[in-house]
């Protein structure tokens, strides 16, 4: 696997720099952007770390060609503003990684060479979700079923829920989600996260695709 420019030990530094950059570059329409999965790294955040103007990996190059480089500066805005738990209703199969938004269509490209985070085959794992703007709500974590083919468009039926938590602890601007990994997973898979804010605050939800390799640690 290709080594990312920014490794996990420097993730917080990169995240802080992204927030500073965002305050000066992002448009007013993106000012409400809120977060993305940092570990295992999401597709959108990894392409941001690689550098949207000249990414390293073939997958990020293809995603930039499909969506434009500017999209990846908005790495914390892959959302649906009024989801209210209706994820399967409002996001079509094949568009899960983009949250059904054409702006992020490059994230839906079915490829087997997206940057993948090595993960153990079982036990406890602390997922780290970068919170540009923290909000109360719940997180759901899904993993692809056995037989997952990354070269085919991702469907809701490809996913199985393995963890749900309300308001996990926030440490250094990152939600710490301690979860038991699903048993029996090996090789390349995808972990899908949903961060659902709750009413009366907001019905907004955020979505991430993180490519992983079980047994890589």
From TrEMBL:
Residues 34-212 form the Chitin-binding type-4 domain. Keywords: Signal. It holds the Pfam family LPMO_10. The keyword Signal applies. InterPro entries: Cellulose/chitin-bd_N, GlcNAc_Chitin_IntDeg, Ig_E-set. CDD domains: LPMO_AA10. It comes from the Bacteria. Transmembrane segments: none annotated. Residues 1-33 form the signal peptide. The keyword Phosphoprotein does not apply. This is Chitin-binding protein. It comes from Amycolatopsis cihanbeyliensis.
């Amino acid at each position: 696997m290709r080594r990312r420019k920014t490794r996990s030990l420097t993730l917080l530094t990169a995240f802080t720099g992204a927030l500073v950059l965002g305050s000066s570059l992002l448009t007013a329409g993106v000012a409400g952007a809120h977060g993305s999965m940092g570990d295992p790294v999401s597709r959108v955040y990894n392409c941001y770390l690689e550098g949207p103007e000249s990414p390293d990996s073939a997958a990020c190059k293809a995603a930039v060609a499909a969506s434009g480089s500017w999209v990846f500066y908005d790495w914390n805005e892959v959302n649906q503003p009024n989801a209210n738990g209706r994820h399967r209703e409002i996001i079509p199969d094949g568009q899960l990684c983009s949250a059904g938004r054409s702006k992020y269509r490059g994230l839906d490209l079915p490829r087997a060479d997206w940057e993948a985070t090595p993960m153990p085959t079982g036990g406890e794992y602390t997922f780290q979700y970068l919170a540009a703007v923290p909000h109360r709500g719940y997180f759901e974590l899904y993993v692809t079923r056995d037989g997952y083919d990354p070269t085919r468009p991702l469907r809701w039926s490809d996913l199985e829920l393995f963890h749900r938590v309300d308001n996990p602890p926030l440490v250094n601007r990152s939600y710490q989600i301690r979860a038991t990994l699903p048993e029996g997973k090996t090789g390349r898979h995808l972990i899908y996260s949903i961060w659902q804010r709750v009413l009366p605050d907001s019905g907004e939800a955020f979505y991430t695709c993180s490519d992983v390799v079980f047994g890589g640690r």
